[in-house]
């Protein structure tokens, strides 16, 4: 990977060029050595260029600089017809637009990507947790947390990942680039006061300032994910939490039911990526419009044993699909984050691409006319039928 001063009609500032195989841990370290921060995923093994950015891409610095797709400057690709192309806002814009959020692994083979790099500044982080000693009190605290997301929504640069099971709530990490310990403490103070009023005590609480993002990530960041799991995802629109009379109670009842079944882990991922906050427009890239209207991204994970039989995997998948259906019924137009959703959702076009789908299909037909590139929920995948268990891919 290389770092440079990038100059174009749309952006003149530092940038990083990275290969498709570069991992987040490598990127963050190299950027820090050059005095920069860059956006990337939460887990150290996430590959930024080939899948994370084309899927949209959220991570610790999303609140500060937008989604991964919002930071893409240009893609170096090879098409399935063997053409070597650069896709940017000024060259092959339709392909650039599609690659910036329109789904991974589908339009061309990404060789490298050039993305924005941001001058490194101190970063404050926090994590804390509390246990469930009484169900009603615990879920009253979860309700308070969901409402507090509307407060956190106002803090420019703020990112938080709150995780809970039926036994424990953990603020996995909060990241705030350019802020101080005092800022972080003030941001959480109203919520912690509500916990105190509920007689809930924190079992751990850690807030620290680091001079660089990489040092922050090394301390607060997520370890390599080594478990198998079934996952699903759904955006939580702002209106759903603002409506405290009906929509929020319905959402919380649904989440509570999930947490009580199959040892589910619910991750409520908060960052403001509206067009106003990020500084772009709907035309800038093909990110799922649901991202822009969301207060948070809810990711549900059900752990699966390494030796789990196929029948158990099918059961877990059916449960996850049912849960996504329940969430869709509460907020039909919310959508979901394509990198963390179920692979067999029958409403995948609407949920993962929204109004962008038809335009993305045109790009697919132009740059991969043979439809060589395929995933089950990629644009154009309805041209084939995949027989699960048989492994055969047939044209429809």
TrEMBL record:
Pfam families listed in its UniProt record: BBE (PF08031), FAD_binding_4 (PF01565)
Record InterPro entries: BBE, FAD-bd_PCMH, FAD-bd_PCMH-like_sf, FAD-bd_PCMH_sub2, FAD-linked_Oxidoreductase, Oxid_FAD_bind_N
Molecular-function GO terms, alphabetical: FAD binding; oxidoreductase activity
Cofactor: FAD
Keywords assigned by UniProt, alphabetized: FAD, Flavoprotein, Oxidoreductase
Superkingdom per UniProt: Eukaryota
Keyword hit for Flavoprotein: yes
Ranges of residues in domain FAD-binding PCMH-type: 1-120
Presence of keyword Oxidoreductase: yes
SUPFAM superfamilies: FAD-binding/transporter-associated domain-like
Entry coiled-coil feature ranges: none
Similarity remark: Belongs to the oxygen-dependent FAD-linked oxidoreductase family.
Name assigned to this protein: FAD-binding PCMH-type domain-containing protein
């Amino acid at each position: 990977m290389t770092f440079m001063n990038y100059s174009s009609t749309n952006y003149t500032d530092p940038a990083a060029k990275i290969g498709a195989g570069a991992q987040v841990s490598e990127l963050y370290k190299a950027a820090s050595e050059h005095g920069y921060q860059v956006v990337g995923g939460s887990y150290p093994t996430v590959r930024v260029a080939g899948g994370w950015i084309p899927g949209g891409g959220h991570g610790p610095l999303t609140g500060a600089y937008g989604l991964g797709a919002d930071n893409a400057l240009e893609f170096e690709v090879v098409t399935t017809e063997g053409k070597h192309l650069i896709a940017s806002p000024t060259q092959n814009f339709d392909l650039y637009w599609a690659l910036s959020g329109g789904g991974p692994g589908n339009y061309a083979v990404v060789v490298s990507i050039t993305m924005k790099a941001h001058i490194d500044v101190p970063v404050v982080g926090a994590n804390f947790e509390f246990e469930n000693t009484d169900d009603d009190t615990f879920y009253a605290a979860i309700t308070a947390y969901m409402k507090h997301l509307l407060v956190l929504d106002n803090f420019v640069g703020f990112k938080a990942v709150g995780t809970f099971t039926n036994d424990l709530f953990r603020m996995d990490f909060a990241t705030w680039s350019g802020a101080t310990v005092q800022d972080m403490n003030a941001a959480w103070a109203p919520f912690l006061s509500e916990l105190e009023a509920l007689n809930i005590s924190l079992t751990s609480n850690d807030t620290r300032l680091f001079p660089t993002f990489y040092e922050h990530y090394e301390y607060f960041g997520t370890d390599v994910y080594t478990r198998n799991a079934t996952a699903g995802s759904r955006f939580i629109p702002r209106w759903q939490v603002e409506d405290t009379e009906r929509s929020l109670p319905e959402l919380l009842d649904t989440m509570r039911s999930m947490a009580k079944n199959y040892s589910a882990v619910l991750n409520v991922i908060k960052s403001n990526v509206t067009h106003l906050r990020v500084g772009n427009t709907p035309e800038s890239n093909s990110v799922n419009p649901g991202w822009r209207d969301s207060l948070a991204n809810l990711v549900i994970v059900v752990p699966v044993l390494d030796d789990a039989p196929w029948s158990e995997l099918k059961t877990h998948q059916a449960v996850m699909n049912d849960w996504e259906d329940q969430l869709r019924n509460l907020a039909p137009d919310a959508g979901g984050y394509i990198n963390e959703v179920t692979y067999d959702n029958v409403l995948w076009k609407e949920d993962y691409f929204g109004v962008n789908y038809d335009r993305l299909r045109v790009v697919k037909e132009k740059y991969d006319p043979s439809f060589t590139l395929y995933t089950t929920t990629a644009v154009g995948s309805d041209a084939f039928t995949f027989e699960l268990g048989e492994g055969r891919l047939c044209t429809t």
